[in-house]
Design goal:
about 100 residues, 4 helices, mainly alpha, disordered N terminus
Length: about 100
C-alpha cells in the first residue's frame, strides 16, 4: 500500500497509483459485502456508493469531495458490521491518498 502522496510506484501503464489502490480496495470491499450473509437496512446504499467509487477510480481524476461523500455514506451504511471493518478501513485509506480531509478552522 502507498504510505504517502509522495510515493508513486512505477506501474508502466501510466495509471495513477492512487486510482489503482482505490479500485483494488473498493473491489475487495464489494466482494466482502456480496459474501456477507446478513441483510441490513442500508446495504443498498453501500452497494450503490461502492459502485460510484469504482466508477470514479476508473474515470481518471475523481472529485475529492465526492470521494469523501461516498466514503461517509458507506461508513454510515456498514460501519456497524464488524466483519466489513477491515475492508472499509482499506477504502478509507485509499480515499485519503487523494488528499487529507479538509480542516475545520
Amino acid at each position: 500500500m502507498l504510505r504517502s502522496l509522495g510515493q508513486r510506484p512505477v506501474t508502466g501503464s501510466g495509471e495513477d497509483p492512487r486510482a489503482v489502490e482505490l479500485r483494488t480496495a473498493v473491489s475487495r470491499l464489494r466482494r466482502e459485502l456480496a459474501a456477507h450473509p446478513a441483510e441490513f437496512p442500508d446495504r443498498a446504499v453501500a452497494e450503490d456508493e461502492l459502485a460510484a467509487l469504482a466508477a470514479m477510480a476508473v474515470g481518471g481524476a475523481p472529485e475529492i469531495p465526492r470521494l469523501r461523500r461516498s466514503l461517509l455514506l458507506i461508513a454510515g451504511a456498514i460501519g456497524s458490521v464488524s466483519a466489513l471493518s477491515r475492508g472499509l478501513a482499506d477504502v478509507r485509506r485509499a480515499v485519503e491518498l487523494f488528499g487529507p480531509p479538509p480542516r475545520n478552522d
